[in-house]
Amino acid sequence: MQQDQQHHWIISIPATITDMNLFKETRPSHIAHLKSLCEEGTIVLSGPTLNEHPKEQDRAPIITGSVWVIKAGTEEEVRQHARENPFAKVGIWSVDAATVQPFVLALRA
């Protein structure tokens, strides 16, 4: 396989949010990092995973992690992008525990 060939991957990154202040402080830089990867076409989609969909409108969901569809040449490249995210740098994400799977984008809305 050529090194410069890009493929789609799914990465599911578990999160442990024990410090809400740290989460709130880090979230703007986390979002900015993701937006830059989306704008350059590296991340196709991204969003949080939840323990359940909230039943009450005023209740915040419990975030259990994040999922991306990302374009990269190798699994290690995918993990490196995740390691560079502010949530990984402050310990909210566990990139070592993330699952990465090859993915074929067959249909898009």
Q: Could you describe the 3D structure shown?
A:
A four-stranded antiparallel sheet has the order 2-3-1-4. It has helices spanning 20-39, 75-83, 86-89; strands at residues 7-14, 43-50, 63-72, 99-103. Helix content is 30%, strand content 28%. It is globular and about 45 Å long. The chain has one domain (7-52, 59-103): Alpha-Beta Plaits (2-Layer Sandwich). It is α+β, with helices and mostly antiparallel strands and 109 residues long. It has three helices and four strands. The longest helix is centred in the N-terminal third of the chain and has 20 residues, at 20-39. This is YCII-related domain-containing protein. It comes from Lentithecium fluviatile CBS 122367. Pfam families: YCII (PF03795). Residues 24-94 form the YCII-related domain.
Mean pLDDT: 93
| CATH superfamily caption | Dimeric alpha+beta barrel
- Total of DSSP H or I helical runs spanning 4+ residues: 3
Strand order of the largest sheet: 2-3-1-4
CATH topology: Alpha-Beta Plaits
Percent of residues in helices:
25-40%
| CATH top level label | Alpha Beta
Radius of gyration: 15 Å
Overall 3D geometry? globular
Q: State the secondary-structure class.
A: alpha+beta
Intertermini distance: 30 Å
How much strand?
25-35%
Low-confidence stretches: none
